[in-house]
Amino acid sequence: MLIEPTLGKTKKILLIIELLTLFPLISTYPQYPRIRSFSRRDPLFVQLQESLSQFYRWKSKRTTRGKPTHISIYEYRIKKGDDLFVIAAKANLPYDTISSLNRINNPGEIKDRKILYIPTLPGIFVPVKPRSTLEIIMLSWRRNKRKEDLLITLKTPKGRVKFYFYMDDRFHPIERAYFLRILFRFPLPKGVISSGYGKRINPFTGHEEFHSGIDIAAPIGTPVMAARDGRVIYTGYNSIYGKHIIIEHSGGYETIYGHLSEIDVRLHNYVSSGMIIGKVGMTGMATGPHLHFEIRRKGQPTNPIPLLLGVKRKR
Predict the structure, then answer these.
(1) Where in the chain is the domain with CATH 2.70.70.10?
(2) What pLDDT, in 10s, does the model give residues 130-157?
(3) Pairing label, strands 73-77, 223-225
(4) If we measure between CA atoms, which residue out of 266, 179, 192 comes closest to residue 228?
(5) Tens digits of residue pLDDT in 250-270
(6) Residues 75/115, Cβ–Cβ less than 8 Å
(7) What is residue 4's predicted lDDT score, i.e. its pLDDT?
(8) How many CB atoms lie within 10 A of CB 159?
(9) Which CATH architecture has domain 185-309?
(10) Burial class of 231 by CB neighbour count within 10 A (0 to 12, 13 to 18, 19+)
């Protein structure tokens, strides 16, 4: 009488262990047909290319008749050394199509992914509920310009995501620049550009000099934010910039934040775009509270205005 319950519990434990060992296989089972390689030896890749060929033939006719009304999705398991642009070229799709469907905000994010979703039509996928700056830009740009062609739902291991699909659309120049990590965010929550980039009269000497950045007027204590993801390579003080920070970014870029009243990061810290790194002040050579902001590429100053999102110009 005492042995049978013990054996029953043992069987249950063994059954649970068996189910747990099967769970990883179940959880990694493809949600969509999986392309193994971008070659004619893979029948699913051939199907993808046939679908794309039909689309491009329809497009060449320049007519609304026969417009595609269905889109299929494939999976591709990322291999070591894969690159977004190479994958897009092999798949015969624009990189902005693949990146928008997979919610990739910059080319470097692919290294953190295991699976890419590959669609059978080129275009831009915009999440109904955007979560990143790029997705917000994409949605705001298109919802006022044109109606989406399709509304699709993507099934992922983390849940379902609804997208507006804009067939044959591409990144707008601003979206492309943001995706390629060329653009920077405005470094203050509020502020007005009081002095621009280029030649100006130095308020201290009265002589014409080159101003290598922009001055953004704001009250003392206004939070200063990192204009882009990067690494802090300098924090300190000198007689010109006062308390200031230099952040190194990808692509050979650096940003400088001068005349701070407070520095809130340390040397070698990695910071994300929008992270508070200090506060506005008037240390160093400053006639009033403001942020001196510079963008340099490969050590050379460049005009920040064309590279800034959400810039507020002097009126």
Answers:
(1) 185-309
(2) 998 789 889 988 887 788 899 999 999 8
(3) unpaired
(4) 179
(5) 878 999 999 999 999 999 999
(6) yes
(7) 41
(8) 7
(9) Distorted Sandwich (2.70)
(10) middle
